[in-house]
C-alpha cells in the first residue's frame, strides 16, 4: 500500500489537498473508502483510495501490516501528527505538512483589529474567524483545565501567558459572542469583518 500523510494547522489548504486526491481517484474510477482499512482486494478489482481522518485511528501495532494491503492510504489529520507516530510509518511514506502562514500566527499571538485587517488581505476571513475562535477556546481551556490540553508543554506555556490578559469570565463571554456571530453571519444577518472589529475593540479595551 502506498501511504500519504496530510497533516498540519493550515486546515484550509489541508482540506483542498485532500479533495484533490479524492477528485483524481474518482476520475480514475477508483473506489474511495473512509476510516476503514480493508485487507482484501476490491470485489471489482478496482484500485482503492482509503482515507483515514485522524491518525490515532491507526494503532502502532497495525502499522507494519498496512504496507501489505493493496491500494493507496491517505492519513488526514487536522493538526500536527507527533513525530513518534510518523517515524513508525514505512520509509517510503510521503508526508505533506501544511503550516499556518506567519501572518496568522502573528495575529493569534497579538490579537488586534489592525492585525486582523492585515491578515484578511491574504487569508479568507472565514478561515481567520475559525482559527481565532479556536485560539479563544484554547485560552479558556488553559485557564480551567490545562492538564487536559492536547499540546506540547511549550505550547501550553505560551497559551498561559496570553491567557493572563483575560479573565475567565471575559474569555467565556468572547466565546459566546463568537458563537453568536457565527450564527448571524450564516443566516446573512451580519457582516463578519464588522462583527469581529466590534468584538475585538470591546474585548481589548
What tags apply to this protein structure?
Zinc Finger, Delta Prime, domain 3; alpha/beta; single chain; Rossmann fold; 2 domains; 205 residues; elongated
Question: In angstroms, what separates the terminal alpha carbons?
Answer: 55 Å
Radius of gyration: 20 Å
Describe the oligomeric state of these chains in a short phrase.
Answer: single chain
CATH architecture of the largest domain: Up-down Bundle
Count of helical regions: 9
> Mind describing the biggest β-sheet?
5 strands, parallel
Strand order, biggest sheet? 2-3-4-1-5
Count of discrete domains: 2
Quickly give the structural class.
alpha/beta
Which secondary structure elements does this structure contain, and how are they paired or packed?
Blueprint: E1 2-8, H1 11-27, E2 31-34, E3 48-53, H2 63-66, E4 72-78, H3 83-88, E5 94-98, H4 102-109, H5 113-119, H6 125-145, H7 153-163, H8 168-186, H9 192-203
Parallel strand pairs: 1-4, 1-5, 2-3, 3-4
Helix pairs in contact: 4-5, 6-7, 6-8, 8-9
Summarize the structure.
With 205 residues, the protein is of the alpha/beta class.
Written overview of the protein:
By secondary structure, this protein is of the alpha/beta class. It is about 50% helix and about 15% strand. The protein has helices spanning about 10-25, 65, 85-90, 100-110, 115-120, 125-145, 155-165, 170-185, 190-205; strands spanning about 1-10, 30-35, 50-55, 70-80, 95-100. Strands 2-3-4-1-5 form a five-stranded parallel β-sheet, covered by helices on one side. α6 packs across α7 (about 155-165). It starts with a strand and ends with a helix. The mean pLDDT is about 90.
